[in-house]
What we know:
It is a single chain. The chain has helices spanning 14-27, 31-45, 67-82, 89-96. By secondary structure, the protein is mostly helical. Helices cover 54% and strands 0% of the residues. Among the domains are: 14-45, no CATH class; 62-96.
Amino acid sequence: MAQKTATLYARIEPDVKEQAExxxxxxxxxxxxxxxxxxxxxxxxxxxxFEVRLPKKRPLELAGMSQEELGASFEEGYQDVLxxxxxxxxxxxxxxxx
Length: 98
């Protein structure tokens, strides 16, 4: 194993750091090891080891929509309900919980 002599300094949001380190602690992985694994994955993938892109559909901005666009959006949602393309609200909120 190569000797670890390089130092990395990074500024991140305190709550992001706290949440990530809590998860790493549960996994028994020190933050420095996780960062080292991330860097090795960057090398192996020759880029980020996950997809980075904008979502296909952006959230609706109601203020900028015409009456026709708003009506079409409501109709699309209504058709999803009729076709059972929905999920229970509790499931959605459970997925969003951090």
